[in-house]
Amino acid sequence: MSPAPPSCELCAQDGGRLVWRGPRLRVIRAEDVHFPAFYRVVWTEHVAEWSGLAPADRAWMMEAVTAVESVLRAHLRPTKVNLASLGNVVPHLHWHVIARFDWDSHFPAPVWAAAQRPVAPPAVERLACSLDVLDAAVAQAVAVACGPER
Amino acid sequence: MSPAPPSCELCAQDGGRLVWRGPRLRVIRAEDVHFPAFYRVVWTEHVAEWSGLAPADRAWMMEAVTAVESVLRAHLRPTKVNLASLGNVVPHLHWHVIARFDWDSHFPAPVWAAAQRPVAPPAVERLACSLDVLDAAVAQAVAVACGPER
Fold first, then answer.
1. B105-147 confidence digits (pLDDT tens)
2. φ, ψ at A117 (rounded to 5°)
3. Is-cis flag, bond preceding B78, omega within 30?
4. Does a cis peptide bond (omega within 30 degrees of 0) precede residue A121?
5. How far apart are CA A92 and CA A4, in angstroms?
6. A33, pLDDT greater than 70
């Protein structure tokens, strides 16, 4: 655990719509209009780098990331899932898990690159299920992967 | 293992300067002028998604990713390390492992966003060690994490 800078926004707040919370990590949905199925797995303690976690914690956090990816694949059949741990702006360990589609505003560029096209109707209306259903499935899968006993 | 499309460039070639090769994965350096300490861990078989790997293979591949990150941190003291598995253009499982510095051309934006500033002298000249030394340290660390017996 690193000392948390007083300004760390992922220490101070959830950082998005809370989908699941356990003692060691939480899952939030980013509420991004371009990428409605954009989740983040956020480590509770203030750790900056992936290799700053103990091996068992890395394995455990990656199980949560994989559980989210698996739900996105099963429910949405995305063209690709994108995973990333960047943290240049907020150096508090969090994994982005993003369902990407060949029709989305940026595909095949990363979500951080320039948009390539307008999308209408809105992306959220093109998903194969509602965000409520998706959130519930993500929460259930992460609870199985990272239940309270672990 | 997914069927490899005939055009998959990571099935056909290393995809960069080869740093270490084992039977199940290889590590290459991307040779990017803006980000000289940019490595990729590439799964040998054609698998598109992270959750398409068996759990033991995920654990093993992530040990290689973590070993590369640890070498970058120890040798370069970067501002941040960025990790990502995207694959929108080349959907063959590979992890980007990139040392980022607050002086680099894109920081704090992701490497896939627009450049924010020119950098002179060239980024490679600002690293705390040569790329030959870095490559050797990466190869050694990955060999320990993913030795031929595993």
1. 999 999 999 999 999 999 999 999 999 999 999 999 999 998 7
2. -165, 155
3. no
4. yes
5. 9
6. yes
Q: How many CB pairs under 8 A join A and B?
A: 95
* Per-residue pLDDT tens over the stretch B70-115: 999 999 999 999 999 999 999 999 999 999 999 999 999 999 999 9
Q: How far apart are CA B19 and CA B17, in angstroms?
A: 6
Rounded CA separation B113/B125 (Å): 23
- Which pair of structure tokens corresponds to residue A66? 């994989």
**Residue A66 is nearest to which of B51, B86, B114, comparing CB atoms?**
B51
Rounded Cα gap, residues B43 and B28, in angstroms = 11
pLDDT 10s digits, A103-123:
999 999 999 999 999 999 999
Specify burial of residue A144 (Cβ count, 10 A radius: 0-12, 13-18, 19+): exposed
> In angstroms, rounded to a whole number, what is the distance separating the alpha carbons of residues B101 and A88?
9
pLDDT recorded at residue A6:
76
* Global ipTM: 0.96
Are B51 and A62 in contact (CB < 8 Å)? no
Alpha helices in A52-97 (DSSP H): 55-76
Determine contact: A89 vs chain B, CB below 8 A. yes
Nearest-angstrom CA–CA distance, A99 and A55: 27
Judge whether B34 and B105 are in contact, CB under 8 Å. yes
For chain A, give the number of residues. Answer: 150
- Chain A: closest CA distance from residue B66 (Å): 6
Asked if the C-beta of B18 comes within 8 angstroms of chain A's C-beta atoms, the answer is no
Bridge pairing between strands A25-29 and A17-21: antiparallel
The answer for B 39-78 residues in CB contact with A (under 8 A) is: 48-51, 58-59, 62, 65-66, 69-70, 73
Task: Please say whether the beta carbons of A62 and B95 come within 8 A.
Answer: no
Torsion-angle region of residue A51: left (phi > 0), alpha (psi -120 to 50) or beta? alpha
- DSSP single-letter state for residue A30: -
